[in-house]
Design a protein that fits this description.
By secondary structure, the protein is of the alpha+beta class. 30% of the residues lie in helices and 25% in strands. Residues 16-263 form the Glycoside hydrolase family 65 N-terminal domain.
């Protein structure tokens, strides 16, 4: 399978000298920026009449779109939640001698597009030619980390060959649509419009979901331009500036946009709140606002940067992943979570999936303050009542966390995903274990986490059924992590994580107070039932191959490997019918191997090898979540070449458009895969039973790699070179850990020889 690389290789920048009109949407996705509060695709401020996807999004602002199916079944959610494209506050059209600048049709020279990942600033510089005369245009923007409501844009126009009349129209455009809207449906209604300000509100819905109000207000500062006019309509306001620019001189416009919403303010105060913020930053120059923003990016990078020596492409890849993750979420607001597309597109509705707990959680646990990971846990705790309701709708006890949600209520209406892919319940429980095991802090577990664990365990206990003849418990009618098989019986991973959850809940109950147990209505009879399920769960197993089988009938399929496919067949989800995919043996993402990754201390190295060698060759990795798990296992098995191959696929998945779908937006929640692959894969970091360990290897073409991790109030710096590995205790008390299965104490710095894998 080939790939498409639009940008140059640079360790800190995403840059190009080409405007890719054919792949404009892909280019827009790759230069998306955000600050956790809001963000946008890499759209141009000025008009672009060619095909593109205009998108500006605000965290936590969404709409419940009615589920419309003619085959309604009990248990279907009433609505599908979707992130909604909001006011286009970037819109700033440029006119030269009365003609609009349009990069789709204008003759371009010296085009330069650059996203600086170190500073979070997007920059464009190009020359256009009109009637034989040239004009240089420079555009810079950032979404502030310091003032979360602020997006700042700086535009300059230099007339290179002759005097010119320059007009710039700075607008706030509320007449926007979602690309995934039914019948070009409009989600916004006008509330108030005035000079430099616009307020809109989501249209009413019948589901009791609060309507969101969004206020956008702007200030425009200019040089060599004079105010010409204001234009105000219900859904758009604009300011026009006009001036004659002499040859060689420059006209500039600085646009400051403040976005406030009813998530943070009372509806009647959203506009006044925005104006107040705009007034408060008025004393600062543009460069001062930018510098404060850049300092915060520098602080984030100090703790989270990963360096790779000798491989600029993969160095760029890992930094791109970290940059986009931090642009999407940094844990400041525990009402928020991480959508699979972040602020880069509308696919997947912008909602929360199991990706957060299974793949994103460990990254934030190790690279940010522990409160960030704790906020992710509390997000689910606050939605526990809705999880009970989700299970009740299916006629089941306990709590079923949603597959897709904004508020804890399931809002996805594909039955095979929504109500068969119940393994996600286990990932919610695993995150509680992961936090407790990694931090050593049991307070969340005994105060709040136990409520979640008990709810999930009660669901599993009701969802299983007992096979009297075989005297075992089974779970039928599920979809495992491998979504290329639906409605299967006894998916091994689902059965395994169900049993593990019951075990962990029983262990956790020993730590809580008697009063807490009473408040949870835990009885001896209930815990005995759970233990009986643990002792008698059925796991499909093949004695001949000595492997756990993905589900009951998997081995009945015609077993092939990806090598048996033609390149014309890939990706399967774009080339084959769904019927053909479901009947095939090909695996979308790690399934059995997902469980072996989670519970690595439950399996011997030989068991891991057998399972990897059987399942990986059948895996097409058409889920962005898949390559990282396989990289980690390949590295642990010392299969260096395979680990590097899969690492490159996860680290540069979007930059090289491996799955031919990045034009819809980036794969944000899988971007932790690059970090996981290095830290847990090549460096072999594990935490089993509260014991930290490392077992580093280094790929052949790398000279070295390094990273920081937080661990139990310590900050460690790990540097792996070809001849030596060092672990430095940057902050905190001395720490006992395992290095290559040998117990060591790190007081300041520990060095040892790096294991070489050919």
């Amino acid at each position: 399978m080939g790939y498409l690389r639009l940008f140059e290789i640079d360790e800190w920048k995403i840059r190009t000298k080409q405007l890719s009109k054919e792949h404009k949407r892909l280019q827009e996705s790759l230069i998306s920026i955000g600050n956790g509060y809001m963000g946008m695709r890499g759209n141009f401020e000025e008009d672009y009449s060619g095909d593109h996807h205009q998108g500006v999004y605000i965290a936590g602002v969404w709409f419940p779109d009615k589920t419309r199916v003619g085959w309604w079944k009990n248990g279907y959610p009433e609505y599908f939640g979707k992130v909604i494209n909001t006011v286009n506050f970037l819109k700033t059209n440029i006119y030269i001698n009365g003609e609009k600048v349009d990069l789709f049709v204008d003759q371009l020279h010296d085009f330069h597009l650059e996203l600086n990942m170190k500073t979070g600033v997007l920059y464009r510089d190009f020359t256009i030619e009109k009637h034989g005369l040239r004009y240089r245009i420079q555009v810079e923007r950032f979404v502030s980390l310091d003032v979360k409501e602020l997006c700042a844009v700086n535009i300059s126009v230099t007339s290179l060959d002759a005097d010119a009349d320059i007009k710039i129209v700075s607008a706030l455009d509320g007449d926007v649509r979602n690309e995934d809207a039914n019948y070009d449906e409009m989600f916004w209604m006008p509330v108030k419009s005035e000079k430099r300000s616009l307020v809109v509100e989501t249209k009413p819905n019948p589901f009791g979901i609060e309507q969101f109000s969004v206020a956008v207000t702007m200030e425009n500062r200019t040089s060599n331009l004079e105010k010409q006019s204001d234009h105000v309509t219900d859904l758009e306001v604009s300011e026009s500036f006009l001036g004659t620019v002499l040859k060689g001189e420059k006209a500039t416009l600085e646009k400051r946009i403040i976005v406030t919403t009813s998530r943070d303010y009372e509806k009647e105060k959203v506009l006044s709140a925005g104006k107040k913020i705009l007034d408060e930053i008025g004393k600062f120059r543009y460069d001062e606002l930018k510098e404060s923003h850049e300092r915060l990016w520098e602080k984030r990078w100090e703790r989270a940067d990963v360096t790779i020596g000798g491989d600029p492409a993969n160095q760029q890849g890992i930094r791109f992943n970290i940059f986009q993750l931090f642009s999407t979420y940094y844990g400041e607001d525990k009402r928020l979570n991480i959508g699979p597309k972040g602020f880069t597109g509308e696919k997947y509705g912008g909602a929360t999936y199991w990706d957060t707990e299974a793949f994103v959680f460990p990254f934030y646990l190790a690279t940010a303050d522990p409160s960030v990971a704790k906020h992710l846990l509390e997000y689910r705790y606050e939605q526990l009542p809705q999880a009970y309701d989700n299970a009740k709708k299916l006629g089941l006890k306990g709590a079923l966390y949603p597959m897709v949600t904004f508020n804890g209520v399931e809002c996805h209406n594909e039955w095979e995903i929504t109500f068969e892919e119940i393994h996600r319940n286990g990932a919610i429980a695993y995150a509680i274990y992961n936090y407790t095991n990694y931090t050593g802090d049991q307070s969340y577990l005994v105060e709040k986490g136990i409520d979640v664990l008990v709810g999930i365990s009660r669901f599993w206990a009701d969802r299983v059924h007992f096979h009297k003849e075989k005297q075992v418990y089974m779970i039928h009618g599920v979809t495992g992590p491998n979504e290329y098989e639906n409605n299967v019986n006894n998916n091994w991973y689902t059965n395994y994580i169900a049993v593990w959850t019951l075990k962990y809940t029983l262990e956790a109950l020993k730590l809580v107070s008697k009063e807490k147990r009473l408040s949870l209505n835990i009885t001896d009879e209930e815990t005995k039932d759970w233990q009986h399920i643990i002792d008698h769960m059925y796991f499909p197993y093949d004695e001949k191959r000595k492997i756990y089988v993905q589900h009951d009938t998997f081995l009945d399929k015609e077993l092939k490997t990806v090598q048996d496919l033609s390149s014309d067949d890939l990706p399967l989800n774009q080339k084959w019918s769904w019927d053909k995919i479901l009947r095939s043996c090909f695996i979308k993402q790690a399934d059995v191997l997902q469980g072996i990754y989670f519970f690595g201390d439950h399996f011997t190295m030989e068991e891991k090898r057998r399972h990897f060698e059987f399942y990986e060759p059948m895996t097409v990795h058409e889920s962005s979540l898949s390559p990282s798990v396989h990289t980690i296992l390949a590295a642990e098995l010392r299969r260096g070449d395979k680990a590097v191959e899969l690492y490159e696929r996860t680290a540069r998945l979007d930059l090289d458009n491996y799955n031919n779908d990045t034009e819809d937006g980036l794969h944000i929640t899988s971007m932790t895969g690059g970090w996981l692959a290095i830290v847990q894969g090549f460096a072999g970091m594990r935490t089993y039973n509260g014991q930290l360990s490392f077992a580093p290897i280094i790929p052949k073409k790398w000279t070295d790699y390094s990273f920081h991790v937080n661990y139990r109030n310590r900050l460690l710096f790990v540097h792996v070179k070809r001849d030596e590995t060092s672990i430095t205790l940057v902050k905190g008390d001395p720490l006992v850990l395992n290095m290559y299965e040998k117990s060591i104490e790190v007081q300041h710095e520990y060095k040892c020889k790096t294991e070489i894998v050919e």
